[in-house]
Amino acid sequence: MSVRLQARLRPSDLLGLGFHGLRAHPLRAVLSALGIAIGIAAMIAVIGISTSSEALVKQRLASLGTNLLTVTAGSDMFGGDAKLPADAIIRVRNVPGVETATWISTLKDVHVYRSASIDKGETGGLTVAAAGDDLLEATGSDLQAGAWMNEVTEKLPAVVLGYKAAERLGISTVGSQVWLGGRYFTVVGILERAPLAPELDTAALIGAGIAEELFGFDGSPTTIYERSADDAVDEARDLLPRTVNPEAPNEVKVSRPSDALAAKNTIDQAFTGLLVGVGSIALLVGGIGVANTMVITVLERRREIGLRRAIGATRGHIRSQFLVEAVLLASLGGLGGSLIGWLITWIVATGNGWLVSIPPLVLVAGVVVTMFVGAIAGSIPAIRAARTSPTAALSA
């Protein structure tokens, strides 16, 4: 009885055949893998930049705290602009759980310029505001240079500039002078960015004493900043409208700046979802490119297929060979795309001073997804190659 021997193809043989197919046409392999790489790089970069930005927001919120509330005036019953009472800050400081509270009051028709020769209309979007003490502590702001006003300088023509205000006025050193409200003020301090109170960035802050003397400041604040113990924030939020203006609490607006930062982060995540969708389309296009390459490869290698079938290779061997080749081609793109995506994220995060934060699972998933796409894209060409008869292949 004769025994029919069947050739066996080990996994190492399959890998060798797959790599041989790629090495035979390196330029084609690189260009085909590039399509996959672009899709994966786009998705990983978008996710990585988003998670790095999210890590920064969480870091900022942890350092700035989420217990800051701001109080502003709303509208009166006739739709006009309401005002906060001048003695509101005293009552706010007596609310249970309040740790610190302070205020600013924007001065209308008072502007700040680099010098007296600047045109009056070129305000640069900057405002002038009288400010109370404890502003740095209440808003979590820091000084970039100089010092905050004290009991003496708040009665003198001294000013503390916000981050953007100093930048737009071209002021970088303490001791410089700016033209404010028709006379020169001396810069005694420059603030860092104030993430929870961005209105301070474009403000020139002066003391209440000099504001009253020169500009008729009546003591009514436009914004009150209040910090409570963490477990008392909700209670303070409920009490503040009635405390600030007992006669018209409906004309008082209370907000939580950290909520705005969290909302911004949510919007960024939604935008990230959109970009991931675009990256998925790029990945699909890359998969089609792999399928196209494999179809052409099968046509060009019909003689090789016929010869292998004639010396004993089964349809399964041929099918496995081309399927492995497609998966290797896609994997090459996946690895390259993951590396490029990580590199883009690192450049963007480092350039903005963020923490580089890419979930390892995303990198692993990127490669696995590309292997899956390669298997799908290469299955039809592999089946087509396996169905090619030896005689037809050798006569082609």
TrEMBL record:
Record field: transmembrane: 29-49, 274-299, 322-348, 354-377
Residue intervals of the MacB-like periplasmic core domain: 30-212
A Pfam family reported for this protein in Swiss-Prot or TrEMBL: FtsX
Membrane topology: Multi-pass membrane protein
Keyword Transmembrane helix: yes
Start and end residues of each ABC3 transporter permease C-terminal domain: 279-390
Subcellular location, record wording: Cell membrane
Keywords: Cell membrane, Membrane, Transmembrane, Transmembrane helix
InterPro entries cross-referenced by the UniProt entry: ABC3_permease_C, MacB_PCD, Macrolide_Exporter_MacB
Principal cellular location given in the protein's record: membrane
Family named by the database record: Belongs to the ABC-4 integral membrane protein family.
Name used for this protein in its record: ABC transporter permease
Species for this entry: Microbacterium luteolum (Aureobacterium luteolum)
